[in-house]
Design goal:
The chain is mainly beta. The protein has one domain (3-112): Immunoglobulin-like (Sandwich). 4% of the residues lie in helices and 51% in strands. It has one helix at 73-77; strands at residues 3-10, 15-20, 35-41, 51-53, 55-58, 66-71, 82-93, 99-112. β7 and β8 (99-112) form a beta hairpin. The longest helix is centred in the middle third of the chain and has 5 residues, at 73-77.
Length: 117
């Protein structure tokens, strides 16, 4: 089950969110050969054209379990102020070459409006 977290981001600003992934015992999760996907949208039923995709990066070394999600100021400037939903998924291929997808984080993002544009 994914962890739930709420964030606030500023409209028109660059955003970087660092996630530190740990396993059930609290040890750093090895993200070697994992890929990450993260998106946000106004609500769960919003169309794909209303979806904002985060740039994702597994920090080096991948054994440290650190992921960075980022949005440019151009992306956040295009967002309307208000609440959004988001989630973050990691995926990898197991020993049988099956793709395993795990949702690690989900929640709400509040976009605060910008006065200076």
């Amino acid at each position: 089950m994914a962890t739930y977290e709420e964030f606030t981001i500023d409209q028109g600003a660059d955003v970087a969110i660092q996630l530190e992934c740990v396993d059930i015992q609290g040890a750093k999760k090895d993200l070697t050969n994992h890929s990450v996907a993260a998106k946000m949208k106004k609500n769960y039923n919003s169309s794909d054209s209303d979806t904002t995709t985060f740039t994702t990066l597994v920090a080096s070394p991948a054994t440290d379990g650190v992921i960075t999600l980022s949005l440019t100021n151009t992306q956040t400037d295009a967002l309307k102020a208000g609440r959004y939903v988001y989630d973050v998924e990691i995926s990898y291929a197991d020993s049988a070459a099956n793709t395993i997808v795990e949702r690690i984080l989900e929640g709400r993002i509040q976009v605060s409006p910008s006065v200076t544009k």
